[in-house]
Amino acid sequence: MDRKKMVYKFGGGSAEGDRAMKQLLGGKGANLAEMSSIGLPIPPGFTISTEVCQYYSKHKGDWPEGLEEQVQEAIHHIEDLMDLEFGDSSNPLLVSVRSGAAQSMPGMMDTVLNLGLNDKSVQGLAAKTDNERFAFDCYRRFIDMFGGVVMQVPHEEFEEAIQGLKDEKSVELDTELGVEDMKELVDRYKAVYRKSTGHMFPQNPSEQLHYAINAVFGSWDSNRAIKYRRINKITGLLGTAVNVQAMVYGNMGDDCATGVCFTRNPSDGTNELYGEFLINAQGEDVVAGIRTPRNINELKEVMSDTYHELREITHKLERHYQDMQDIEFTIQQGKLFILQTRNGKRTGKAAVKIAIDMVDEVILKKDKAVENLVQPNHLDQLLHPQLDESSVKEEEILGKGLPASPGAAVGKVVFDSETAEEMKAEGESVILVRIETSPEDVGGMSASEGILTSRGGMTSHAAVVARGWGKPCVAGCGDIIINYENQIFTNGKVTVHAGDWISIDGAQGMVINGKKEVEPPKFDDNYHTFMKWVDTFRDMDVRTNADTPEDAAKAREYGAQGIGLARTEHMFFGDERIKAMRRMIISESEEERRSALEALLPYQKQDFIEIFEAMEGLPVTVRLLDPPLHEFLPDEDEEIAALAEDLGIKEADLKRKIRLLSEFNPMLGHRGCRLGITYPEITEMQARAILEAAVEIKKQGKEVQPEIMIPLVGTSEEFIHERHVIDEIAEKVFEEAEETVEFKVGTMIEIPRAAIVADKIASEAEFFSFGTNDLTQMTFGYSRDDAGKFLELYLNEGILKHDPFQVLDEEGVGSLVRMAVEKGHSVKPDLKMGICGEHGGDPSSVAFCYSLGLNYVSCSPYRVPVARLAAAQARLRSESTASSTRGEDKKSGELVS
Questions:
Q1: For the segment 575-616, what is each residue's pLDDT rounded down to a tens digit?
Q2: Which fold has domain 248-346?
Q3: In the structure, what pLDDT confidence band is assigned to residue 285 with cuts at 50, 70 and 90?
Q4: From the CB of residue 564, how many other CB atoms can be counted at a distance below 10 Å?
Q5: Residue among 461, 630, 825, 839 flagged as catalytic
Q6: CATH architecture of 384-519
Q7: Which backbone phi and psi does 96 adopt, to 5 degrees?
Q8: 843-852 and 813-827 helices cross at what angle (nearest 10)?
Q9: pLDDT digit string (tens) for 655-692?
Q10: Could you give the CA distance from residue 563 to residue 565 in angstroms, rounded to a whole number?
Q11: Catalytic residue among 836, 839, 849, 859
Q12: 138 belongs to the catalytic site
């Protein structure tokens, strides 16, 4: 790649890139280029491509040949536009060095500001700005950031240095330190740097830049960035780009400011400018939460003209990008500069409202709103529980902060990320309590039910990350004081210790003592309107996995179009049912088994009646008994003795029977269709229960669509055997009832061999349903119950990109699914096919299923809205890709001609 273009310049109303180059320039670099092209006030700069980051990682920190020269050329580009000189002692150019991947990873990678300052250029900056304090304030900030980001000097050591000076001067705020204080602080920071690194602080700006670029590239492979990508399932990126940009200053005096704003409220979607700013400050002060920022609307009173200019730019950016924007800006001596724009992180509620409003405002059409503005995880957030306010007493409220991310969270207090991750792994629910969060806390934030900080604003790290993940967050709760050393926080009246229960309400910014009740989610008119749009663009059905009438009803409420998997084994529990089931299992003869099954029949039939009623008019796929029989028997001596007495048999006989039924590898043992073939009376009873229930529903004048699914088939002969039993029972049931019901018999493709011989099975079956849980286990050779012992290591080491039990493995398991689809359709072009594994609710897996032409996906009731949106987006994106391809083909043809 040494001969390739690696550096892309922007500024002065033009750019060498645009948003179509997002994969190469990163989101930030692509947006900077585009904003420059449309004439916004952007400080000039350049972007080093993500390909260079990939090269850097693969070549152990080496730069590709030619990069140094391209960087120097780009620096001259900035010098020309700014009329400044990099490293000059009288007219110095200073730059920022920032990361920017193709997908937003807020706070995960590194930034260096004020780069180019040294002992000489600081004097030039002071003279040029006639502000000596400002110049030395920039210098001490640069030493701090360069030391921390590039040389891993602990930030606390710089904090101790400035706090020590403030204590000596008896001042509280950084801004109260004068010119001589800042000069003294620069010297102290240099001492901290030298003590920690063993080197003097570098004075050569080109050397500073080289090291800073390396640090940004290196941060791509930092633990926090890797963990963030894993948590957010971000894959397939080359690395981060590096954006080098001329510095503009919000800390030159009271006519300067810095801020972050959203073009709409990211918490509830209200169409209002939303954000914060600080007078006489740099951007890190806002994001880090070190100083308490002011509401963005107060800028109208302080700098009216600039506020209105900012407002106009936000409107322009929204219409250009057709999305809500997250903007960073700086005001330098009354002049506004836009430093960054990106699609803003938002809550689920806000995402839906913004989509509805932008269509109403004719910013974009419905199809694009569905395709781009609401993500499946946004709908997932809407399913979060809310706090039951009636259960909260005034005296239980520990404090109120900013409503940074809505939803209710209840958990035990932890004060550090490591503990949060450990307790989560043990099944505990925790609330992470921090003075302020940093990127190092990403693992603990992910492991927590919710986040509470005592410092920071609505655009602080905690708030932005929590909103992006849909986790409840209360930020900047100044009512509490946190003491890490003693592992407590207090509001002055009540002290809460690590391990104590608290509840937080992210919608109201409320912190409550104790474990409070939560209420189920509520959906507003915007949600219902949006989901109608979703279904307009969706052409793949979404069913649910449900074993009870209650689950079926809930799923139907969430928009399910039938049941894709009803597991009959879940219906055998309950005092009388399990007793009959166990009696059947320990029977020594077919006669005894049939007697026990006769007792089970009414229970099964009633279950199916209630499920069919809940799903009236929609298909219901019922899977016949799947797990091995020993799973229904006790394994503890006390329970075995009690069961023997209950069944009236000898304990020794029961133990012998249990011993005979036990298996070395139950997952591959006597289960599924193998049970039905060995004991056809089990299949007979279940088929009778299903079909008698269906007949009864039909006689009530209701529509019923039963589908009987034979599990664990690996040969067509197995399917034929079970199908024959079902058909014989159907004939008897219909004759007895003098009524018939149309029904289908199909199978679950969950054994690799079934995919391989799918054409033979399809010649007999009326539908396929892919059981990707077992198909994943058998294809990988992983036990789902035991894989946790090594899966995390595999993910950390990059051996696997995703947990294959959460995200469908397209390369391996997906190839088997594709083979089965093709073979099945080769025999029966209209063969109905779906997926009923857990992957049916995973958006990327849904998209893959759509690409294969499956008729439906089936998932848990609470994932139905997510799957509906994922299915609609799969279709829209498929059409967008096809349209884009047609456009490229046409364009190519024009070029050829």
A1: 788 888 888 988 889 999 999 999 999 999 999 999 999 999
A2: D-amino Acid Aminotransferase; Chain A, domain 1 (3.30.470)
A3: low
A4: 29
A5: 461
A6: 3-Layer(bba) Sandwich (3.50)
A7: -105, 150
A8: 30
A9: 888 888 887 777 788 999 999 999 999 999 999 999 99
A10: 6
A11: 836
A12: no
